[in-house]
Amino acid sequence: MTATWPFAAFVGMPPMRIARAEGTYLYDVDGRRILDAAGGAIAVNVGHGRAEVADAMHDAILSCSYAVPPWLTPQRERLLERLQRDWLPPGLTRMHLTSGGSEGAETVIKIALQFHAARGLTGKTKIIAQTPSYHGTTLATLAVSGHESRRHGLSHVLPAVPVVPAPHALRCPSPDVGRYCLDALEQVIEREGADTVAGFLAEPIVGASGGALVPPEGYWQAVRKLCDHYDLLLLTDEVMTGFGRTGTRFALDQWDVVPDVMVAGKGLGGGYSPIAGVFATEAVGASIGEAGMNVMFHTFAAHPSACAAADKVLEILDRECLVDRAANTGAALKARLCEAFVDHPHVAEVRGAGLLLAVELVEDRESLTRYPRDQGITTRVLAEGLRRGVSFYPGGTGEVRDIVALGPPFTVGSEELDLMVDVLVDAVDTVTRS
């Protein structure tokens, strides 16, 4: 019997057989070159095939193939020092490494619960979440994810969590989207009772689930004040947006707001290694430690080779000024997309920040009516893109749908931006005007 991979087919992701990758391109088994406009799963930032990253991983494996995560190795120590010195927002001094974003997001939830338990507030157990959103594939992280399709088949066993809308100006019922969402958050806090709520978990810029939803000015500053007022922890998920993706080191930096606990992944390893980081304030970490609690590690967390890869990726990002490049290149790509789709009857909006961008497709631009789900618009657009030699990323949640996301490596060039736009326009036209 032939083995089946993946375990079950992924809707919106046409099957491919990739032989190798280099720079901003993938190469299939037939040698065909495909521009990686998706950065894999919006994870590749310094480009594919960097020999110096591979060399760092090789050296790490030879010198220390494995050590339990709480122990320091030279690779772990260098990464932690670089993170503290060059990357983390001021005040985030406690660090914990995991093997990926799902583990990291679940750790954020556990830290929030432990923090309040350490203070004797064991009734503060609820996490308020946003929708749309995505925080991971474990049961706990799916429970706090506003992602219908990834909860499919599991919703009946997931605990209910209080949910508020993510800021989305295009579809908000109020012209003041910030006020509308802030009022919703405060109403949920008061309805649930602040003495039962541990924290508010959200993506500063909603990633692929909502399609690069950028909140209005003042929203995050007001959220910070609400959390402080009601004694909640502000928990941020920067798995997709962190480490330069949105044109700043972390997306929340754009509003000069520091969370209590943050998880950031994908860009930390740049696609080279399975690694994510959970970062917290000294007050949070000290409270947990003083209560005699610990934050348990996973067996392969902080693996020496993964730490070596991440350290080298962060070095490259700084050395080549790639965060600034992501901001500038992203602005250029967004401008080209806006120009290309300015009058398109089936494009509702082009949005995003840095090199996290999205195009939302609709059946009718005036009414914002979505296509029926069974038409599979996103899947068809992605397939047309691949036929033309460009890989895009499927966005949406099922309920939120027909979103094409772009998240290429920060090293992408101008001619490649033109190719992305030209191919996406052709693919969208082919699917929506057929």
Structure description:
With 434 residues, the protein is an alpha/beta fold. Helices cover 37% and strands 17% of the residues. It has helices at 39-42, 51-63, 74-87, 101-118, 139-143, 148-151, 177-192, 219-229, 282-290, 304-319, 322-340, 377-387, 414-432; strands at 18-22, 25-28, 33-36, 92-98, 126-131, 163-165, 197-202, 233-237, 261-264, 276-281, 347-353, 356-361, 390-391, 393-395, 403-406. It has a 7-stranded mixed β-sheet, sandwiched between helices. It has a 4-stranded mixed β-sheet with strand order 1-2-3-13. β1 (18-22) and β2 (25-28) form a beta hairpin. α2 packs antiparallel against α10 (304-319), α3 runs parallel beside α10 (304-319) and α11 runs parallel beside α13. The chain is globular. The mean pLDDT is 96.
